[in-house]
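Figure 2 data, in text form.
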Amino acid sequence: MTKHAHASHDPGPVPGSLPATAAGRFAIGGDLPVARMGFGAMRLPGRTWEGPAGDPETAVAVLRRAVELGVDHIDTAAFYFYEDLSANALICRALHPYRDGLVIATKVGPDRSPDHAWLAPAGPAKIRADVHRNLRELGVDQLDLVYLRFLGQDGPGEGRFEALAALREQGLVRHLGVSNATAGQLAEAQRIAPVAAVQNRFSPASRDAEADAMVERCARQGIAFVPYFPLGGVGAPDAAALRRVADRHGASAAQVTLAWSLSVSPAVLAIPGTSSLAHLEENVAAAALTLGADDLADLADRSARSPRSAP
């Protein structure tokens, strides 16, 4: 097993000319600087949880191209799989041995059976086992960032976040995060160990006062806020305001949506996922798109109340 570069020294800066770095950088946990435009690996094994299966050769090409474009923050999970394809295995195949400065984040808490049924939330023993599973599958002996993913109102208690904190103390995990978390769940986790990142649903189509308050709290506390489903979960919302802003900039609605997320706070990190090289190039290019006051006013009218999603 190859030791992850971050376990021994700090990464050097990624050249500023690379497209993914156009929106600037943020240091996760204060010591893992990443471009604010990253990549989410959920769609690589299959387009949806039910398939169809992705093409592994294309997935490898997408991952390698993402890194060429300056992406140095990849989000994954052991439960991102379809049939015999898994996001972790694809990442390892495409990018291992990992270059200096590449940050790979993963999640524990949920899990799926081989027939794709969602299982009960993991207890402490399963969380420990899942961390070791991610270490094996990614081919590292320290994970940069591990989120405890909440399902509904289940929280960090009953030893769940304590299990992750103990693994952090052992050096198997560098930083901890929480996902799909309420303000109360974040506070409970912070009483146990430092939280370096929050991964919640957030986009122009899925925001409310609670979500806005979480973004502001993360910014105040130096916590990375990493929206999942940054394009709404099913592609960019089809909205007149998005089209108007996109037309002004000669951009796509998806690019405007990503640029909006990055404009909300310097603590926001985008991790759009795709299994398409063309969409990857389009998404990363959104890091260079700057929205003006008129654009943001238009998009503010798109705010909608949206329920929390399943894993």
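Caption note: The two ends are 29 Å apart (CA to CA).
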